[in-house]
Each structure stands twice: as structure tokens, then as C-alpha cells.
Amino acid sequence: MNKEFITVLEQLEREKGLDKNVLLEAVKHALTVAAKKIAKITSATEDVKVEIDPVKGDIHVYISDKEVVSKEFGRIAAQTARQVIIQKIREAEKDNVYNEFKKKEGDIVGGIVYRIEQKAVILDLLGKAEGVIPYSFLSPLDRFRLGERVKAFVYEVKKDKGTQIILSRKHEGLVKKLFELEVPEIFEGVVEIRSIAREAGERTKIAVFSKDEKVDCVGACVGMRGSRVKNIIEELRGEKIDIVRFSEDIKEFIKAALAPAVISRIEVDREVKRAKVLVASDQLSLAIGKRGQNVRLASRLVGWEIDVRSREAIEEEVNDILKLKNIGKKLAAILVDAGYVSLEKIAAVSADELSKLKGIGEKKAAKIIEEAKKVIEEKKAELEVAKKETAQKEAEQKAIEQKEAEQKEASSEEKKTE
What residues pair up with 125 in beta bridges, in sequence order? Predict the structure, then answer.
């Protein structure tokens, strides 16, 4: 070893981020093991020590405090140093990649589709590393081509036989970070994203709030002629995005979250974070959305349970409950508000549970439940009678039709005979 070796180590320290002292210690350890083999040392009392001059690069080997000079040490030293440096460079590069992308967890990265496998899509992350998007982390709308540029959310970075970078196109964080990239007001902190609810590939609701009264949070996110939100929709392959104005007033926030449906009335229970939303019958399907998506996303966005019903449906439920004995409109309304919106639900509850409601004691609760069961049985009996009557009428009608058919056939035969 010589000063040239030290110069190489210093260069690696600058370019690869390797600590020169760590490299020297690794070389010393490897040479100590090699020296023991060369000197054929087996006794535990004989100590081998290797010293390397950090300035000149000279090597000295001591066995039991006596320096040993051997040409083989020079050859072994050169080979060992080379192997240690290569190994450390590889380890350092892996560590650098891991550390760089570990810091990016929760952020987004851009990459090029490098490989499409049976269970995952592999992205080349600017030549530094490979990112893996498992199929379960893809949006249903994602269809990639080799060489295509794609943005993805860094879901997890872990060390597993090297650095493994797990990416996602399904995570809500992808939408959040895309808005931060596209909307300067969000990046600067003037506009805040308060919450996001997403069903990847279909619809996302995002609640925004402006710290500056002069800045319209929704307008900032939409952009001139919708340019900003269009770029995000394009990146998400056409996924629909609803931008909702956040409000500290929970009723106003729920109204905005359920848009475009027009809300008639909202009743809230702040203790259990539950809201009952009343809409006109023509607004019910709009408020609930296709397969319940609109109300489901609104609930997640607001963080409350939202129960949407039409005024007509509630009136019908109240009228049904009013059929019970000793039940007035006020008590019927209490039962409906508590979630007992049908006779079946009342019949299924315990008297102890029902007696917790205002104005209902244990005895009254038991009577209400008993009466509900009785009315249900009566309804079933009426339904059975109606079914039998319907079946009988259908049988009679069928007999009449059959008789008419037979008469027509007989008449036809008579004409043929004539």
C-alpha cells in the first residue's frame, strides 16, 4: 500500500459518500484475518495487529508486538483492499439509494415504465433505482405502455435483498401530492387540503380551505378554465374529482360534501358524529349516488356517519309506526330519529335498549315491542291471504282462458267438417 491508495480512498469518500476511516478499518480487519493464515497462527496467546498509515498508506503487521516483514503481505494487502473497496462501494450505493428514497416516503416520484409483469408494473426511477407498483396498488383505469412516463406515490421503502421501493397509484396521497404540484397556493400553504376521500378509478372528493380571504380555495384548485384540475384528472386517467369547500360549520361542510344534491334539512348528533340528512324525493338518488358512492365518499371526507333519506320516506316510516297502539306523532318521531325506522327494527330490539330513549320506560318499551311483533304477524297473515286470493284469481283466469281456447278450437274443427 502507498499514498496512491489513500488518494483513491479520499476520492471515493468525495464521490460515493464512503467514510475513508471506515474503509481503512475494514481493510485492517481483512488483513488481520489474512495475516493469521499466512503466519499459521493457531494459538490464542499470539495476537496479530495490523496498522495502516492514514497519510502514507504504509502497512505494518505485528505478531505479539513483533513486526513481521513478508512480501506476501504486500500482495495480499493489495487484493484484500480491492475486494473490500468494491464491497463497500456496493453497500454504500445501496445505502444511498435506500436513504434517498426513504426520505421520499409519502411523496410522489416520476418514472418510466420499464417492465410489465404478471403481478406488478416496474418503473425506472431516473436510472437510480426500480420502483414496483403491485397490481393491487394500481387504479382500475391504469393501462400502461413500455416507455411511458408515470407519476406514483411512494408507499413504502424497505431493505429486502437490496432496496425495495413500493409505489402506489391507488393511494389518496397521490391525489394530494398532485394538487401540491399543480396548485402553487397549496404548495405555498395559502390553501390547505383538509381531507381526501377516494375510490380509485371512479371518484375523489377533496376538501380545501383558504387561509387568505382574498384567495378562493376552490377556484385556485380548478385553475383558469379548469386547467389545473384537468392536468390531475389526465394523470389519473379520467378519474372524477369533486373539489369541496371546507367549513368549520359541520352542516355547511356536509351540504358541500353531498353536492350536487340539494339538501332540505340536516340534523346532527355531535357526540356520536352522526348526521341525518333530509332531501326531496327527486334529490335522493343524486345525494346517495351510484351504488351509494356519493354519500359514502362524503361520510369519509367529513368523518361523520351520514344517513340520507327523503322526507316522503320518513313520513311513510312515521305513519307505519303510528299504527302501533299508544304511539303518537311525537313518540313515533323519537323512534325514527333513534334509527328505529321500521316495525321490524322495533321488534328486533330489546326492551332494555328501547327504554333508554326519552319518554319510554321499561314497561312501555316492552308493550311497544310486543305490539310491533303483533302488527308484523298481522301483516304477514294479510299478505298470505292476499297471495292466496291472487293465486285463486290467476287460476280462475287461467281456467277461463283455457275454456275459451278449447271453444275456439272446437269451432275451428266444425268449420273444417262443413
Answer: 129
Question: pTM for this structure?
Answer: 0.65
Domains and CATH numbers, the chain: 3-101 (3.30.1480.10), 104-168 (2.40.50.140), 173-304 (3.30.300.20), 322-393 (1.10.150.20)
Phi, psi (deg, nearest 5) at residue 86: -60, -45
Rg value, the chain, Cα:
39
Q: Which of 296, 269, 113, 128 is nearest to 203 (CA)?
A: 296
Q: Whole-angstrom Cα distance, residue 58 to residue 32?
A: 15
Q: Mind listing the pLDDT tens digit for each residue in 203-238?
A: 999 999 999 989 999 999 999 999 999 999 999 999
Distance CA 48, CA 346 (A): 87
Residue 136 CA to residue 170 CA, distance in Å, equals: 8
Using CA atoms, how far apart are residues 261 and 258, in angstroms rounded to an integer?
6
Are 193 and 218 contacting, i.e. CB atoms less than 8 angstroms apart? no
Query: Is beta strand 163-168 parallel, antiparallel or unpaired with respect to 129-134?
Result: parallel
Q: Tens digit of pLDDT for each residue in 237-272?
A: 999 999 999 999 999 999 999 988 989 888 888 888
